[in-house]
Amino acid sequence: MQILRAANHRRMPWKNGGGETVEVAVSPEGATLGDFDWRISMATVAFDGPFSIFPGIDRTLSILSGSGMTLEIDGHEPVDLAQQSPPFAFAADIAVTAQLMAGPITDLNVMTRRDAFMHKVERLHIERSWSGSLPAAISLVLCHEGEASFELAEENGMIYAGDVLMIEAHCRAALTLAGAATCYLISITAI
Fold this sequence. Notes:
By secondary structure, the protein is an all-beta fold. It contains no helices and 17 strands. It starts with a strand and ends with a strand.
């Protein structure tokens, strides 16, 4: 288990050069945008335009701040995403264009290599406490707003806005979060 502090996240340009992304975690460590197994990042989208294409990758997007955006996904009806929308999963290797609803947004982007991993993203609104078992061998808790204490297997600590608690090899272990926070539980499973 380790805490990835917000101050240490890596900033880098988007694959298509259209903006900046904050890389929260990537596997294997040091992987590039072309050879990662899984990647978690946050990006500010300030203009309408196309998403970067990632061959063989599945993606889930959640709106962290701003009014939201409409995604036009190749061959499908447009999808409106706002902060209250559930995390939205789609293929990252098809044409997707974003149109902002009313100004810039910040999103959470979780990506996994389709032939090796699968993932799930769940938003947690913690008013006092939350408890649950970790569904995957790799689980990450991103504290988006507020702060939360955690307890897992007799270890405990605090995460604050922007921090990520990364937990490996604790599948089905009981995690408790306490405080007032909005968090995202990200589960990554090898296929």
